[in-house]
Design a protein that fits this description.
alpha/beta; TIM Barrel; 8-stranded parallel β-barrel; two-stranded antiparallel sheet; binds zinc ion
Length: 279
């Protein structure tokens, strides 16, 4: 099973690989900088080389970088929009410099302007980014729980954005199981998961599905609450997780945990639980 987790980059960025190794990861996700700030210190060539070297030794593949939190590519605030675009372009290049395969992106919040407006604005932003950065990695749009005015809670949103960018080859899809459940897709049952993934196939396309964020959900089905829970302890539950990790569309994809880690060994237990569910 291609399993890993989101690991911290505190200290030196390449120390994230040591954390992944200690936890037995075969893939990992990081922020490439402080996700709550706009600016970041440039990476030194030495840091980049060291990360690549360690990653190669441990055998981490793919490497996933998650977009910082402040960026909102669909904000109606023009100043914030331009700032977001600029930061995004620099962050996607940074991820590429690190040798990442995927850059996971939230679709943003339209702040009351409406979904249609937001989806078109996002498509235009992505076109600008792709033209400016010419990324040698894939941008993975992640589904959301649908709280507030966030885009990405319906699979139709992805279809719209992909169509509006003329099916750009740079765009893929990351399925977050907690977010899907909270948005009303019942991925906790065999039937519900099958129906959800059928929608994904029809609206987004099988070939664009590249990554699973494997999180249990504290919130109920359709609660719109984005709160991750340890595997088996949330509303998706152990049987739901078993169905997810064994589904034919998902089982060969990288799975990344983004669970809360309240206790020191939560992450190890989550990894072990998921492995034990594989048939
Ligand atoms: Zn996620
Ligand atoms: Zn989340």
């Amino acid at each position: 099973m291609l399993l890993g987790m989101h690991v911290s980059i505190s200290g030196k960025i390449y120390e994230s690989v040591d954390r992944a190794r200690e936890r037995g990861c075969r893939t990992m996700q990081i922020f490439s900088r402080n996700p709550r700030a706009w600016k970041a210190k440039d990476l030194s060539p030495m840091e980049v080389e060291e990360l690549k070297k360690r990653r190669c030794q441990v055998g981490i593949n793919p490497l996933v970088v998650h977009v910082p939190y402040l960026i909102n590519l669909v904000t109606p605030d023009e100043e914030l929009y331009l700032r977001s675009l600029e930061a995004y372009i620099s962050d996607v290049k940074r991820a590429e410099t690190l040798g990442a395969e995927y850059f996971v992106t939230h679709m943003g919040n339209h702040k009351g302007k409406g979904e249609e407006w937001g989806l078109i604005r996002l498509a235009r932003a992505l076109e600008t980014i792709i033209a400016a950065a010419r990324p040698g990695l894939m941008i993975l749009l992640e589904n959301t729980a649908g709280s507030g005015s966030s885009l990405g809670s319906r699979m139709e949103h992805f279809k719209k954005v992909i169509e509006a960018t003329e099916g750009s080859e740079c765009l893929g899809f990351c399925l977050d199981t907690c977010h899907a459940f909270a948005a009303g897709y019942d991925v906790s049952t065999e039937r519900g998961l099958a129906r959800t993934l059928q929608e994904v196939e029809e609206l987004i396309g099988r070939e664009r599905v590249k990554l699973v964020h494997i999180n249990d959900s504290k919130g109920e089905l359709n609660s719109r609450v984005d709160r991750h829970e340890n595997i088996g302890q949330g509303k998706i539950g152990l049987e739901g997780m078993r169905v997810i990790v064994n589904h034919s569309l998902l089982k060969n994809l990288p799975f990344i945990l983004e669970t809360p880690m309240k206790n020191g060994d939560d992450d190890l237990r989550n990894m072990a639980t998921l492995r034990s569910l594989r048939e």
